[in-house]
Amino acid sequence: MQYKQLLPLALASLASAQTPSLTDALGSQNSTLSTLNALLASYSNFTDSLNDMKNITILAPSNDALGALTSSNDSTSLLFDSDYVQALLSYHVLNGTYYDSSFGNESIFIPTMLTNESYSNVTDGQVVEARLSDNNVTFFSALKQNASVVTANVNFTGGTIHVINSLLVIPENVTETLSNANLTAAEGAINTANLTDSVVDTPDLTIFAPNNDAFNAIGSIVGNLTSDQLTSIIGYHVINGSVYYSSDFENTTLTSVSGQNITITVLNGSVYANSAKVTVPDILLENGVVHVIDQVMNPENTSAAPDTTASSATPAFTGASSGSDGVPFTSGVTTPTSTFPAATSAGGPEATSSSSGLAMPMKTGAVGAAALFGGAAVLINL
User: Fold this and answer.
1) What pLDDT does 359 receive?
2) What is the pLDDT of residues 95-146, one digit of tens each?
3) 296 or 75: which carries more pLDDT confidence?
4) Any idea what the Cα angle at residue 355 is, between residues 351 and 360, rounded to 5°?
């Protein structure tokens, strides 16, 4: 009887002895992870905490992926902020153990260990999107920038490790995201309505952002909008207190900041907010998520419904048409200099499948560069 009780314990001990520690597992991949291993060695407290964790998945950037951090002066300067580097590392640690077999064609949104409020204002931690893309397990971060798994299921005592070919990028705030996604009319409209601080600082937002073509389609009436009307229109595109990713959408109604309901319809694989079609879902924000839509929704026309027979989106504002002065609200708004995947269908030029530069977030408030640390030298010198 005693032998029967001891046998499972002995087998468990044997399995534990055969499963390497985090340090040993990372070391087994040193040919591709030497830069990450050196960086983690310079953050012993952070690494010690990782060693103590259970049920986690680490997305380990390859040497080439981490090399992108030193490709520009802007990103290199962030290496001298220890809070930023630890936030970046935390964003590569998923809550839960996910083997490569855990992912399918449908997107899932996985909370990470990034809970530092200077970089994330999402309850339970900033997320990454994960799904199969061209049969490769792929993770999507800020502005739909993607990283694919090149070596899967390097198991250790606390979970598993996937080596990825690009760095995950911490999602930016609303202003930076709209700008870099070429949603410059939405950015300008929010600024014109003096709502920038509100949408940047409020946690857990879902924003339906009309693309530039959508704003252009109502250009004829924009000049006649009062300040209160513009505020109401902007508020009608924002859900406060809940972050709804595409995987959460079903046929339902959501209450906007303006107080009116938005009807969500899932039809033939497409998602609609009232009559506006979601053209680019799930652009992650520092404080939530943006879904790009092809119409400006009208808080005075909440019954607008999808018209799948129309060849182009019909404005929800009666009598509205394109104006003669260019895209509304874009005057004085900075045009993005890099093209990111999220800008592909944002009402501007078609984007390439990869970005021409990493979009690096800044801390809420000023980034302190006074505290130099060994990790920066490690990355810069390798």
Assistant:
1) 59
2) 999 999 999 999 999 999 999 999 999 999 999 999 999 999 999 999 999 9
3) 296
4) 130
How many other C-beta atoms are found inside a 10 Å radius of the C-beta of residue 258? Answer: 17
Q: How far apart are CA 326 and CA 323, in angstroms?
A: 7
In the structure encoding, which two tokens stand for residue 332, read together?
A: 């004085």
Cβ contacts of 173 within 8 Å, gap of 6 or more: 200, 285, 286, 287, 361, 364
Q: Strand, helix or coil at 329?
A: coil
In this structure, what are the phi and psi dihedrals at residue 269, rounded to the nearest 5 degrees? 85, -5
DSSP 8-state symbol, 194 = T
pLDDT in tens, 2-52: 545 544 444 444 445 589 999 999 999 999 999 999 999 999 999 999 999
Strand locations in the chain (E): 56-61, 93-95, 108-111, 127-133, 136-140, 146-156, 159-164, 205-210, 238-240, 252-255, 261-267, 270-273, 276-285, 288-293
SS3 113: coil
The encoded tokens of residue 318 equal 């009666």
Structure tokens at 82: 């220890």
